[in-house]
Amino acid sequence: MSGDRIVPRHVAIIMDGNGRWARARGKPRTMGHRAGVEAVRRTVQTAADIGIEYLTLYGFSTENWKRPEGEVSDLMGLLRLFIKRELATLDKNGVQIKIIGDRHRFAADIRELLDNAEKRTATNSRLKLTIALSYGARAELVDAVRQIAHQVASGKLTENDITEDLIEQNLSTAGMPDPDLLIRTSGEQRISNFLLWQSAYTEFVFDDVLWPDFDREHLERAIESFAGRERRFGAVL
């Protein structure tokens, strides 16, 4: 990409299409998920190379727990493998890892791996990689409301203290800029309970490519689309 091209500060991606990718090749869904891990590796590297500051990936939703037990088990195995194999490289390349979502539903060893990944990379700043695991935006908003309600009930806040900024401070993405660009692969055109509050003024790109085939060209094409848009944030320019 040329040096004068606009690069979004924060890109979020809904990684969709692993199952269809596998089915089209006559392979089990698990092979699609494995190929999807390779796409994650490529995308993280590309994001760092082209100067994206924040990359947020929708890895596993709260609804995904409803999938067949065997598929969930395989996904958990891939998560373990990804962290164990990639953590050293991510750390070396200056990637900071942050996990959002309800990690209490994961097995103890996975929670430990996630905690260690966050601690080990906490001071890195080249790319801030957020992975949404066991995440649902509605649940995130409910948690934020509960935290604020507790502060009101305890007398630390009054109802007049409740502002948009206060709500943002109680979200799992506190301290992060809202996504400038959200990409969804596989041709689906919905956001599936992902970053509902944070995406109020986000630009969307829906790409027909299945996630395992997503590469640098697809990311750059999405950014080109983003760069050509006029972001008004509700104002008339």
Automatic annotation (TrEMBL):
Substrate binds at residues 17-21, 29, 33, 61-63, 65, 67, 184, 190-192. Keywords: Magnesium, Metal-binding, Transferase. InterPro entries: UPP_synth-like, UPP_synth-like_CS, UPP_synth-like_sf. CDD domains: Cis_IPPS. SUPFAM superfamilies: Undecaprenyl diphosphate synthase (SSF64005). Binds 2 magnesium ions per subunit. GO terms for biological process: polyprenol biosynthetic process. Its EC number is 2.5.1.-. The active site is at D16, N64. Gene3D superfamilies: Decaprenyl diphosphate synthase-like. GO terms for molecular function: ditrans,polycis-undecaprenyl-diphosphate synthase [(2E,6E)-farnesyl-diphosphate specific] activity; magnesium ion binding. The keyword Nuclease does not apply. GO terms for cellular component: cytosol. Its cofactor is Mg(2+). Catalyzes the condensation of isopentenyl diphosphate (IPP) with allylic pyrophosphates generating different type of terpenoids. NCBIfam families: PRK14830.1, PRK14834.1, uppS. Homodimer. This is Isoprenyl transferase. It comes from Thalassospira mesophila.
